[in-house]
Request: fold
Amino acid sequence: MIRRDHPDLSVSQQCELVKLSRSAVYYMPAGISAITLELMKAIDRVFTKYPFFGSRQIAAYLRREGVIAGRHRVRRLMAKMGLEAICKQPRTSRPHPQHKVYPYLLRGMTINRPNQVWCSDITFIPVKHGFLYLAQSWIGRRGKF
Reply:
């Protein structure tokens, strides 16, 4: 679109006409270095062998093999390669598509006596081999709920 050897229009004028910044015309993308490509191959090799490893475990595994790479770099490269550890995910906030959404009936309600309102909460707790749920209940006694 932009011709640097245009006889009548400068590069600045051509960029202005097509609403493009001049820096976009002169930008030369930097390729991925050979070291980064080797690291990406190593990450892919480890991830293929252990698809349940996350960035921490892959970084530790590579460190044991003599490849020095920080966890954040491994995480960034895994994201760039589209790799994500295979593990169980909590399904606490995924309602069924046909489930009715009920209105919040306590909005603005003043609670002025004991046992007027009860409330409960379910909390997700990750553990070594999966996850647990903690259920709590309490009674609203004063103020707004």
Q: What stands out?
A: The beta strands are 117-127, 130-140. Residues 56 and 92 are 25 Å apart (CA to CA).
